[in-house]
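Chain X:
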Amino acid sequence: MVSDLRRERRRVAEAISALRTSQQALDAMLAAALRQPGDAPSPNGRGRPD
């Protein structure tokens, strides 16, 4: 049972790592999109209108 728990913990840790990588990539894409010239500020103050 302990080996199964360790294997599952490894699997979860790998999934978390992959999700963090995806989140960082999305953050970079959003930041780049918000820096595009000609974007008018939105009423919510976050750059592009939602």
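Chain Y:
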Amino acid sequence: MTRSEDRSELVKTSETSVDVAPASSLLRDIEILVIEIAQAERDLSALVTRARLDGASWKQVGAALGISAQAAHQRWSKLGPETHRRLQAEWVRKNDQKEN
């Protein structure tokens, strides 16, 4: 059963159909989504770091993100060198696992 199928159960009445999901199922989906968002944020930071290390300007990074160069710089330049190294290593490790 897929996650979307697991999320809710369609209950049919004589006049209408109502999508009803148990609260526990919805809460579990929220928890899963929070984890996925956190991973996506880490992946995004790693990609920004890699782009910058490969010579991309903040203007180019901002354009790719749909934000200004200043907004990109403010968000990602504050990450220290150790964080950048960790993010890059994590991204490389994750993509190596995908290839194998």
